[in-house]
Amino acid sequence: MKGIQDYYHDHFAQCYGCGRLNEHGHHLKTYWDGEHTITKFIPKEYHTAIPGFVYGGMLASVIDCHGTGSAALAFAKQQNIELCEHNAPRCVTASLQVKYLKPTPIDGEIEIKGTIAKINERKATIVAELYAGGNLCVTGEIVAVLVPDNFGE
Ligand SMILES: CCCCCCCC/C=C\CCCCCCCC(=O)SCCNC(=O)CCNC(=O)[C@H](O)C(C)(C)COP(=O)(O)OP(=O)(O)OC[C@H]1O[C@@H](n2cnc3c(N)ncnc32)[C@H](O)[C@@H]1OP(=O)(O)O
């Protein structure tokens, strides 16, 4: 299964959270599931907060890049971009809010579901729900801003 991150330009694919070219990173893949976006992640033992549970900063990191990936998917849809090669829109985080509802067990896959709450021509707000073992453990809200094509030129 390809994620939006497979379509980022090489220059924008170095991010620790979601860059496919960062050998130390999470290598997240975010894709559509109907009207929602999905990212899955399997925590490692060294992501521990207290034994058995995932470190909250790690969960925030995953929610962050799920948000920028979801925003990129939403902008691609808005702009009728057919994803191929490395033509995906790219977003940075303007704001990240996280609420920890329950401790997140470390032994198993985590699924993050995204909803595009708002979008205009440059900014998207994504609401995220993070589930472990089917239980909602963390929620998040990300404001992501589109990086212009000529950024840094
Ligand atoms: C890493 C550095 C990134 C910087 C540059 C991009 C380089 C591209 C390269 C590679 C891309 C891949 C990177 C990986 C991404 C993964 C996730 C991260 O870790 S990102 C790192 C953490 N985030 C930052 O360091 C952003 C620092 N902040 C900024 O650069 C600016 O403040 C920015 C771009 C977010 C907005 O600045 P404006 O001057 O371009 O635009 P204005 O007009 O201020 O905002 C645009 C819209 O966003 C809203 N906005 C801005 N800040 C907001 C905030 N904190 N909360 C809510 N809304 C906000 C504004 O109200 C405005 O909304 P309305 O279009 O008018 O509706």
TrEMBL record:
Keywords assigned by UniProt, alphabetized: Apoptosis, Cell membrane, Cell projection, Cytoplasm, Fatty acid metabolism, Hydrolase, Lipid metabolism, Membrane, Transit peptide
InterPro entries linked: HotDog_dom_sf, THEM4/THEM5_acyl-CoA_thioest, Thioestr_dom
GO biological process: fatty acid metabolic process
Subcellular location: Cell projection, Ruffle membrane; Cytoplasm; Membrane
Catalytic activity: tetradecanoyl-CoA + H2O = tetradecanoate + CoA + H(+); dodecanoyl-CoA + H2O = dodecanoate + CoA + H(+); (5Z,8Z,11Z,14Z)-eicosatetraenoyl-CoA + H2O = (5Z,8Z,11Z,14Z)-eicosatetraenoate + CoA + H(+); decanoyl-CoA + H2O = decanoate + CoA + H(+)
Thioesterase domain sequence ranges: 52-135
Alphabetical list of Gene3D superfamilies matching this protein: Hotdog Thioesterase (3.10.129.10)
Matches recorded under CDD domains: PaaI_thioesterase
Gene Ontology MF, one: thiolester hydrolase activity
UniProt EC number: 3.1.2.2
Pfam family, one: 4HBT
Bilayer topology annotation: Peripheral membrane protein
GO cellular component labels: cytoplasm; membrane
Main location per the UniProt record: membrane
Family that this chain belongs to: Belongs to the THEM4/THEM5 thioesterase family.
Protein name per UniProt: Acyl-coenzyme A thioesterase THEM4
Organism: Marinifilum breve
Lineage, highest ranks first: Bacteria, Pseudomonadati, Bacteroidota, Bacteroidia, Marinilabiliales
